[in-house]
Amino acid sequence: MASTRPYIILLTLSLGFLHLVAQQPANTLSGIVTDSATGKPLAGVSVFLNNTSRGTVTNAYGAFQLTEMPRGTYQLVFSSVEYKTFVTEVNSGRLPPPLKISLSPRITELTAVTVEPFDKHGWAKYGKFFFDNFIGSTENAGSCSLKNKGALRFYFSKRSNRLIVKATEPLRIENNALGYYLTYQMEAFGADFSAKIVSYYGYPLFRQMVPKNENRRKKWEFKRKEAYTGSIMHFMRSLYAGRAVTAGFLMQKEVMAPNEEKERIKQVYRPDFQKPGLFPMDTLHYFWEVLRQPDPIKKTITISPDSILTVYADGTRGLYFNGALIILFGVNARTAEDYKTSGLMLMKPQIINVQENGSYSSPQDLLAQGAWALSEKICNLLPLDYER
User: Fold this and answer.
1) Domain range spanning residue 69?
2) Looking at the 3D structure of the chain, how many domains does it have?
3) Do 207 and 237 reside in the same domain of the chain?
4) Is residue 172 within 8 Å of residue 183, measured between CB atoms?
5) CA separation for the pair 337, 139 (Å, rounded)
6) What is the value of pTM for the model shown?
7) Per-residue model confidence as pLDDT tens digits over 160-208
8) 323: buried, middle or exposed (CB in 10 Å: 19+, 13-18, 0-12)?
């Protein structure tokens, strides 16, 4: 979805902003947000680290400050209903001086949402489908609620057999299974019914619920650990740290390889030169079955994490592979039934950057399959600053 992003303006700083520069404490991110057209400061803009519990809003002077930055690289999101979402990347080890961010009005986008004919009965028709594929359909989803579903706009095209869902404001979600309030700035949600692919992306901000008692706190702690174990975040963190195998992940790929069994049987079974009755009938049936197989044949092989992850000179990590990547979790389990089989596929032939905290970019370029396609929903989503 193409859009013109707002930009960072480099101008001569006012005395007030210079004072902010001088006063910025260590491990703190600060700045001022203004309107790109008028230059006036913008109050009430949400400023947060994407997919974390760290966020704030700009004050009456458009100023913001995020203290105690968590370790790692994050997307810094500036979100307001009336302005286009702006996203930039920050690293806790190399924090920039106070930022001056200029946001562009969202006039064109809001007009499109208002004027275009959306289905007024969209929630009745597609609400369950949206909930199941966005919030989730697993156990935790039953304890989640979408508080402002009226903000959703549903557009279905019979011609393309696609459903597009937009939101006129950030979605407010309560996850009582994991103990979080979420504010989700949904940038895109689309379902291609012909290809059977659902994709969405956006920018969530977490806020922890206050448990009513110790039992509730322990239950949330248990459910969070359960949601994390074997998740994509768990996989990415383990892969980054070089501990994917010891963490219980096994990576496989399907490759085309010579059909060695077919070649072996060709050497053993030569009906034109052998006497009848040389092989039992059940053996002959096996021979005939194998000889009908293609050559080459698909074969599943185990691959090393080093074959898909590159560590660059500056310490950054890049994930790249061809075709579908099969990922088994629980490889130390006693029986095959305990394995969880998932898959990843690149939507574009490009490198996915992996961070220490488990984030990766761009999420919309990585298609989850198998168990992850079912579990990697909002109901099981954890903030990047979650620690086991």
Assistant:
1) 15-106
2) 3
3) no
4) yes
5) 19
6) 0.81
7) 999 999 999 999 999 999 999 999 999 999 999 999 999 999 999 999 9
8) exposed
